[in-house]
TrEMBL record:
UniProt keyword Ligase present: no
Name this protein carries in UniProt: Nitric oxide reductase NorQ protein
UniProt entry tagged with the keyword Cytoplasm: no
UniProt cross-references to PANTHER family, sorted A to Z: DENITRIFICATION REGULATORY PROTEIN NIRQ, MOXR FAMILY PROTEIN
Top-rank lineage group of the source organism: Bacteria
Limits of the CbbQ/NirQ/NorQ C-terminal domain: 182-266
InterPro entries with a match to the protein in the record: ATPase_dyneun-rel_AAA, CbbQ/NirQ/NorQ/GpvN, CbbQ_C, P-loop_NTPase
Molecular function via GO: ATP binding; ATP hydrolysis activity
One Pfam family from the record: CbbQ_C
SUPFAM superfamilies: P-loop containing nucleoside triphosphate hydrolases
Length: 267
């Protein structure tokens, strides 16, 4: 299995604060064996949501971080050589199909086009996975579910998902949570008290409203959680925000100064 793939079997339900109807929609898609596509900026809760849903539905989760070298064999499997013989090793997608697990392909648009084509027979009503190398054709059990995510912000013409792939999925758009939800998330994840969480959320609002700076993405919920964690451990809030929010967002000193002004206005 590729180094990026991870199998998780959950004993506990990972904390997830819903943004809308996504839990009911996901459960419905699972019951009707429909694959799901989740769009949204980085750090807004997509992965946490899927971990939560896998635990809720009682299914193991295979997570694959897609990248531009990811081949179909990385997902399906390959022959390996060991002890003088060759043997077949399932990839994470094949394992998920055999086990009736949820397979989550994170940042699927990064993967090569030929890779996404292997998803086609799995993501329509055939629900099959042909393994060319071994001649097997696996029929996915009802418990198997395919979930993909991508960040529309990074998309370019070369990388967009093909309509023939997109149109096989039920789609959901995620964004940063509403302030009240985000405050709960920051408190629950970092341990800060209400007042600090409120300031961090207000800071995120201020940073997200900055339009005239050349930021690829704005402050995510994840960054607020990081800043909260530093503050909760006794770090000065302004320095915590510099380290956890401003530095990861930009390399440009002028932009960093502008972001720090917003930080100082809040803390
Ligand atoms: P994404 O997959 O969208 O990049 P993650 O799911 O990894 O983002 O979210 C980043 C972090 O933000 C999580 O580890 C979690 O601490 C927090 N988080 C964001 N949204 C939520 C939410 N709705 N409920 C609980 N935690 C959340």
């Amino acid at each position: 299995m590729t180094a990026e793939a991870k199998r998780t079997a959950f004993q506990e339900l990972p904390f997830y604060s819903p943004q809308g109807q996504e839990i009911a929609l996901f459960e419905n898609a699972y019951q009707h064996q429909l694959p799901v596509l989740i769009k949204g900026p980085t750090g807004c809760g997509k992965t946490r949501f899927i971990r939560h849903m896998a635990a809720r539905l009682g299914r193991p989760l295979y997570t694959v971080a897609c990248h531009d070298d990811l081949t179909a064999a990385d997902l399906i499997g390959r022959h390996l050589i060991g002890d003088g013989t060759t043997y077949w090793a399932d990839g994470p997608l094949t394992r998920a199909v055999r086990e009736g697990a949820i397979c989550y392909l994170d940042e699927v648009v990064e993967a090569r086009k030929d890779t996404t084509v292997v998803l086609h027979p799995l993501s329509d009503d055939r629900r099959t996975l042909p393994i060319e190398r071994t001649g097997e054709v696996l029929q996915a059990p009802p418990e198997f579910m395919l979930v993909v995510s991508y960040n529309p912000g990074y998309q370019n013409l070369l990388k967009g998902m093909k309509p023939s792939t997109r149109q096989r999925f039920v789609g959901m758009s995620f964004d940063y949570p509403r302030p009240e939800t985000e405050r709960q998330v920051v408190m629950g994840e970092s341990g800060v008290k209400t007042a600090t969480a409120e300031r961090l959320v207000a800071l995120a609002g201020g940073l997200r409203a900055l339009k005239d700076h050349d930021l690829e993405e704005s402050a995510s919920t994840r960054l607020l959680v990081y800043a909260g964690t530093l503050i909760n451990n006794g770090f000065d809030p302004v320095e915590a925000c510099r380290a956890a929010i401003v530095e990861p967002l930009t390399d440009d000193p002028e932009t960093a100064d502008a972001l720090m002004e917003v930080v100082r206005a809040v803390f």
